Amino acid sequence: KTHTHTHTWKTYHQTQANKTNKKMGFRVKYRGYVHIDVGGLDESGIPTSKSLNDAWVLLTKKRKEAMEQHPLFACGIDGNLLYIVEGAGIKVILLSGKDRKEVIVMNTPIHKIAKVADKGLSILLVVSRGSRGKYKCHCFDARSSTDAKAILHQTVDACKHAFQRVRRSVRKLHRSTKFASIVSQTKEEDAVQSISQLADENSVRSKELKEVLAQLDDHSDEEIEEEEKLEEEKVGMPQKKEEEEEE
Q1: Of residues 132, 136, 142, 108, the one with CA closest to residue 52
Q2: Residue 7 has what DSSP assignment?
């Protein structure tokens, strides 16, 4: 039976990697891959458990049938492979030669992983392959059931953490966008208020000016001249009195 797990699984390999600050992985055997397309997907567009089981049968028990479907199907790798779970994805390294030189044979980004499951000692890693509804199912055999479950849980945890990081980033982006929108809206409201206030002040001044002009319009030119003469006479009267007193 195929199982999928989502809870945390700490292993000896993880503990040692944390202590030594080195990348450590699991020894595995690679059995190859097959394609899983539209016929083996559920309503959400993810491969079903049945399609994973069919892929596992092709990769472990019916390899000739898989190769008849495509010459590259079920073509495994003979050699010592190291399966490493990283935050950015899954890396599989081939240890070759006496000097144990590392050759990267697979480097799958975390966002391409659609599903991971175990079946006995086998790990089924399902990754998207470009078009929507098209997947590639890789099969690895662990050295023990303990390693198989550890590989499964580490891979699932890496995917969960990546999803959480993306979700936090999206929330942060939404918050910053909303804040920028509020600031912009506040600035616009302040500008509108200032313009409205200036318009009110200008309206008052305009009204006062209109009243003055209206008063001037109410007086004829002759009346204005008479008012000016009266003002001059009022100013001149004190001077005449002083002259008469001197005489």
Answers
A1: 136
A2: S
C-beta atoms surrounding 146 within 10 Å = 13
Q: 1 with 55: CB under 8 angstroms?
A: no
pLDDT digits (tens, 9 = 90+) for 38-58: 667 777 788 888 999 999 999
Cα–Cα distance for residue pair 126/58, rounded to 1 Å: 15
Greatest mean pLDDT range, 12-21, 100-109, 177-186, 217-226: 100-109
Distance CA 100, CA 111 (A): 30
Asked whether the whole model's pTM tops 0.85, one would answer no
Return the ∠ at Cα 116 (arms to 142 and 52), rounded to 5°: 90
The C-alpha atoms of residue 45 and residue 132 are separated, in whole angstroms, by: 8
Contacts of 227 (CB under 8 A, 6+ apart): 219
What pLDDT is stored for residue 178 in this prediction? 60
Which residues, in sequence order, are CB contacts of 161 under 8 Å at separation 6+? 87
Greater confidence (123 vs 186) lies with 123
The Cα 133–Cα 151 span in angstroms is 25
8 A C-beta contact, residue 95 and residue 79: yes
How far is CA 93 from its chain centroid?
31
Reply yes or no on whether the pLDDT at 2 is more than 60: no
